[in-house]
User: Which sequence fits this backbone?
C-alpha cells in the first residue's frame, strides 16, 4: 500500500517512519521541482509525478501551501485526502475566517485589508495594538507584522505598499492578551468517526512554537468539550479526513480559534511517545481507510523544539524519559531541526526531566 505525500520535510519523514511497521510505503513530492523523493533518505526516486500519483493508493499533504497546479493535478486524480477545500481553507486566512464566521465559531476580531489605506479604519475598529498577517504563505510567524501604536502606522504602510494586497489580502487582528495557547489535534476517518488527543498547551516565542505540554493542565470537562465541539463542527463542515489541528487562544473559560492546520501538526509531536498511537500513524490510518488507533495518553509529555542549531550534546540522551527526533536538515536560523519528547509518570517528575535537560543548554 503506498501513500504519496505532497511536501518532503520532517512531517513527511515522520509519516514514513510511522507507516513502516504497518507496511505502508510513504513517498514524497518535493514541491519545489515535483521530483519524487524518499522522505527519510531524501534520495530522488526515478519516477515521474504522474506515475507516482497513478501508483499511490492515496495522496495527502504535509503542509497547506501547495503550488496551485500541483494541487489541481492531485485533486483531479480523486486520491487527495484531506480534500482540496480543506487544504485551500488552511492555506488562506480569508477562507479560514470566512468559514469560522459562517459556522459561528468564536475567533479573534479582525478586518480584511486589500489596500494599505484601509489600515486606518481597521485600527479604528480593532484598537492600536494589532497583528497583521499575510493571508497566504505565512508560517512560524513569518508573513506577520506587529503594531504597538498609531505612530508605527506610516512606516508599516510604506513596507506593506510593496505587496499586492488585491491578490493576497491582509488579515488584521486585534492583538489579544490571552491566558494561554492550547491546540486540539484529532483525526477523522472516512466514516466520520473521530479520535481526539487531549488539548496541548503551547508556548511560542516570536510567533514560533517552542514547547508543547500535553495533556495541558487545568482542563476541565467543559473546556475539553468546547474544544471538541468546535473541532467537530469544522471537520464535519469540511468533510475532513485525516489529522487536523485547531489552535486556540484561551481567555478565561472561552476558546477563540486562532487558526487551523489541515495536516499533522508540531503541537502533536508529543504523541510519538506520549500516546498509544501517534498522530502520524493515525493520519495514515485515516487516509488509508484503516481503523483509527487509540489516542489514550501513556504519559505526560513535554515536546521541545530544537531550533536553528547544527548539533547538540548527545549526552542529553542519558536523561531518563528523554527521546530525540532529529530531522537531518541543514541548519539555518529559526529552522526546526528536531525535537525532544520528554516523558514522565506525572507532572512533578516531568518538571524534573525538563530541569535535567535545561542543564545542558547554554
Ligand atoms: P503561524 O501560521 O505563523 O503559526 P499564527 O496566526 O498561529 O501564525 O501566529 C503565530 C503566533 O503569533 C501565535 O501562536 C500567537 O502566539 C501569536 N499571535 C497570533 N495572532 C495573535 C493575536 N491576534 N493576538 C496575540 N498573539 C497572536
Ligand atoms: Mg499558528
Assistant:
Amino acid at each position: 500500500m503506498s501513500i504519496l505525500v505532497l511536501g518532503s520535510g520532517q512531517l513527511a519523514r515522520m509519516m514514513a517512519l510511522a507507516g513502516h511497521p504497518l507496511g505502508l510505503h510513504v513517498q514524497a513530492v518535493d514541491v519545489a521541482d515535483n521530483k519524487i523523493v524518499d522522505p527519510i533518505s531524501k534520495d530522488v526516486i526515478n519516477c515521474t509525478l504522474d506515475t507516482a500519483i497513478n501508483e499511490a493508493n492515496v495522496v495527502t499533504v504535509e503542509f497547506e501551501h501547495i503550488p496551485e497546479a500541483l494541487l489541481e493535478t492531485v485533486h483531479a486524480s480523486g486520491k487527495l485526502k484531506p480534500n482540496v477545500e480543506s487544504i485551500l481553507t488552511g492555506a488562506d486566512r480569508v477562507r479560514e475566517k470566512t468559514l469560522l464566521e459562517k459556522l459561528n465559531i468564536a475567533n479573534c476580531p479582525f478586518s480584511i485589508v486589500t489596500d494599505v489605506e484601509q489600515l486606518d479604519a481597521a485600527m479604528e475598529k480593532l484598537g492600536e495594538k494589532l497583528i497583521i498577517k499575510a493571508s497566504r504563505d505565512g508560517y512560524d510567524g513569518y508573513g506577520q507584522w506587529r503594531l504597538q501604536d498609531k505612530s508605527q502606522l506610516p512606516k508599516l504602510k510604506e513596507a506593506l505598499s510593496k505587496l499586492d494586497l488585491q491578490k493576497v489580502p491582509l488579515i488584521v487582528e486585534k492583538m489579544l492578551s490571552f491566558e494561554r495557547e492550547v491546540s486540539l489535534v484529532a483525526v477523522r476517518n472516512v466514516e466520520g468517526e473521530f479520535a481526539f488527543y487531549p488539548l496541548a498547551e503551547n508556548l511560542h516565542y516570536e510567533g514560533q512554537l517552542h514547547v508543547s505540554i500535553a495533556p495541558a493542565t487545568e482542563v476541565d470537562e467543559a473546556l475539553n468539550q468546547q474544544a471538541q465541539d468546535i473541532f467537530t463542527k469544522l471537520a464535519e463542515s469540511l468533510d475532513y479526513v485525516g489529522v487536523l489541528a485547531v489552535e486556540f487562544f484561551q481567555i478565561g473559560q472561552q476558546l477563540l480559534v486562532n487558526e487551523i492546520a489541515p495536516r499533522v501538526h508540531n503541537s502533536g509531536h508529543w504523541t510519538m511517545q506520549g500516546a498509544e498511537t501517534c498522530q502520524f500513524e493515525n493520519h495514515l490510518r485515516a487516509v488509508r481507510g484503516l481503523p483509527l488507533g487509540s489516542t489514550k495518553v501513556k504519559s505526560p509529555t513535554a515536546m521541545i523544539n530544537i531550533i536553528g542549531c547544527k548539533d547538540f550534546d548527545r549526552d542529553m540522551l542519558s536523561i531518563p524519559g528523554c527521546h530525540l527526533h532529529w530531522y537531518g536538515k541543514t541548519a539555518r536560523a529559526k529552522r526546526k531541526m528536531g525535537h525532544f519528547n520528554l516523558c514522565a509518570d506525572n507532572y512533578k517528575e516531568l518538571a524534573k526531566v525538563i530541569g535535567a535537560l535545561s542543564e545542558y543548554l547554554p
About this structure: The chain has three domains: 2-80, 109-174, 180-358. The chain has a mean pLDDT of 97. Residues 108, 131, 133, 138-141, 173, 175-176, 181, 204, 207, 247, 258-259 surround adenosine-5'-diphosphate (ligand 1) (CB under 6 Å).
